[in-house]
Write a structure and sequence with these properties.
- A hairpin with a 3-residue loop joins strand 2 (about 55-65) and strand 3.
- About 25% of the residues lie in helices and about 25% in strands.
- It has a domain at about 30-105: Alpha-Beta Plaits.
- The protein is built from 2 helices and 4 strands.
- The protein has helices at about 40-50, 80-95, and strands spanning about 30-35, 55-65, 70-75, 105.
- Helix 1 crosses helix 2.
């Protein structure tokens, strides 16, 4: 994680509220996508095409739900997410047929990571 990003990793021993502005006053944001009717095959096709390089993305996790697939991302800023969405994700998702609802999002107040 870059030194000027919001919500640096902290251990449970020293978990403190974070949420200081990143570059240009932007705040770290989390995004939750629900993709009804999708599964690992569709998700893997999107990820294979996109690769893992996503400037500004801090965390990514995904998995199955009863209704389909869910993706949760944490981004350095709304602007970084918007650029990735428009320039990379939407064109690939349309091509593969991985159609998500508009994501829910919220400003990240804290990230706690377990110590190694």
């Amino acid at each position: 994680m870059s030194s000027n990003a919001v919500a640096p990793k902290v251990s449970n021993d020293d978990a403190l509220p974070v949420g200081q502005p990143a570059r240009g006053g932007a705040m770290t944001r989390a995004f939750i996508f629900e993709v009804p009717g999708a599964g690992a095959e569709e998700y893997d096709a999107v990820m294979k095409t996109l690769g893992h390089d996503a400037p500004g993305r801090l965390y990514h996790c995904a998995g199955p739900t009863e209704e389909g697939w869910m993706v949760v991302d944490v981004w350095e800023s709304q602007e970084a997410f918007d650029a990735f969405l428009a320039e990379r994700l939407l064109p690939v998702a349309r091509k593969v047929g991985f159609f998500a609802s508009m994501p829910q999002s919220f400003p990240v107040h804290n990230i706690v990571e377990e110590p190694n």
